[in-house]
Write a structure and sequence with these properties.
Length: 178
């Protein structure tokens, strides 16, 4: 199977986002509590996420049939900008937010990565991570924050083994029988 990377310049953003949300539905359906997105939701989120989608922070992998088989999306971290805004966007609160999105920022938030279920475990995620690492370093980012992941998910933890990483947050769910 031949795979290739596709950038935002290669395909219209609406097609990329449509393919991305369809792949999201296929990939994450095995997770407990996941509800697939409807076509209406996909259209809504496409318009909402469009301003955040940047060629520096996205990676899309397609096969030779033109089907998206994997994607990775991250965005500049906004936590420090939100603190500087102190809850106010007007009159000048939007400036730190704009700087964080387009200028001074050395940290990205890794939002989402998905690989088609039949290709998981074959190294397709390595294509995404390699491409993202090159793009992010070139764009001047130094740090990346990942989202919550299960402590027992050895596949996810193994993909971070080749990177210098520090676990500084932990979330757990506990069950108590009544």
């Amino acid at each position: 199977m031949k795979l290739h990377l596709v950038s935002l310049n290669d395909k219209p953003i609406k097609i990329l986002m449509r393919d991305m949300f369809k792949l999201y539905n296929d990939t994450y359906q095995v997770l407990f509590g996941m509800v697939p997105m409807t076509d209406e939701q996909m259209l809504k989120y496409t318009s909402e996420f469009r301003p955040m989608v940047d060629a520096r922070t996205t990676s899309f992998v397609y096969n030779e049939e033109g089907e998206m088989v994997a994607f990775g999306i991250c965005c500049p971290a906004l936590d420090h900008a939100m603190q500087k805004m102190k809850g106010r966007t007007l009159p000048f609160g939007w400036i730190p937010l704009l700087r964080a999105l387009k200028g001074k920022n050395d940290t990205v938030d890794l939002l989402l990565i998905a690989v088609r279920p039949d290709l998981q475990g074959l190294g397709v995620n390595a294509i995404i991570l390699d491409e993202m690492q090159h793009k992010l370093v070139k764009a001047g980012f130094k740090y990346a924050e990942s989202g919550p992941m299960l402590e027992i998910n050895d596949n996810i933890l193994a993909q971070w083994a080749r990177f210098e990483n520090v676990q500084h947050k932990r979330r757990r769910c506990f069950v108590k029988e009544l």
